[in-house]
Amino acid sequence: MTIADIRLLHPGPASSRPLALDDLIDLLAPADRSIARVRANAVSSVDGSATVDGLSGGLGGPADLVVFDLLRRLSDVVVVGAGTARDEGYGPLVLSDDVVSWREEHDLAPHPVLALVSASLRLDPSDPIVVDAPVRPIVVTTESSPREARVRLEEVADVVTCGVDRVDPRLLVSALVARGLRQIHTEGGPSLLGDVIAADLLDEICVTVSPGLEGGGGPRIASNPESLDLRALHLDHVLLSGDMLLSKYSRRR
Ligand SMILES: NC(=O)c1ccc[n+]([C@@H]2O[C@H](COP(=O)([O-])OP(=O)(O)OC[C@H]3O[C@@H](n4cnc5c(N)ncnc54)[C@H](OP(=O)(O)O)[C@@H]3O)[C@@H](O)[C@H]2O)c1
Which tens digits make up the pLDDT trace of 4-26? Predict the structure, then answer.
């Protein structure tokens, strides 16, 4: 399979030739799938913006997409805030046939489950993201969400309540683990990722630094109304593709 030219910088020695797909999988695969783990990925401009013209797409590139796809491939559930699903026009989480075969060979379900997080339930039950999903999606919501919208969504998704006015990430993680979904991957966006970090639940984050300056008022990759004490992280690896840096950090133990 052709992948973008991605080289390992750290841990050294730096690779003189592009990494093969299996090398990347080894770098990104969880050490022990039986242990629940929450990871995230995000892309930022050099000056810290999570968007260009309101979307993250302008920051990505082939190498970032390879990592994005591999993180989906390796997860049991992909958790996405409704804002990102709406803004980015998410489609159903369908993997290619060869990735489905790879997952089956590695004793994984053919597809990860998509979990959409929403308090308002402003989600269209006829949207392809749910009706064309290869696995019944999960909608994670609150006790105060609108009842009619909930009833409509229950026809196409498992609707799970995890909090009163906002989804509590701790209840969210417990609910997913109770379903056997231990490798929990979130693609954000910033509000959801901010909540996960504030709850001190993030074990790992893959951050791509896109070689550009946004210079405007774009959001950070994670935002939360309250500042936290700085959480120290361990640098697991740094990859280079052209001028793009792709890193993985994990919680210090
Ligand atoms: N650079 C990156 O890596 C990256 C990644 C993802 C997204 N983005 C960008 O980020 C922007 C969207 O930002 P955002 O902060 O709005 O994204 P978001 O976190 O995906 O969406 C916020 C919405 O998701 C739901 N939500 C999130 N956390 C919740 C919680 N704890 N409880 C209940 N509902 C929750 C709510 O939906 P309801 O309104 O339905 O209640 C909330 O309004 C877009 O421009 C997107 O392109 C960038």
Answer: 899 999 998 888 899 999 999 99
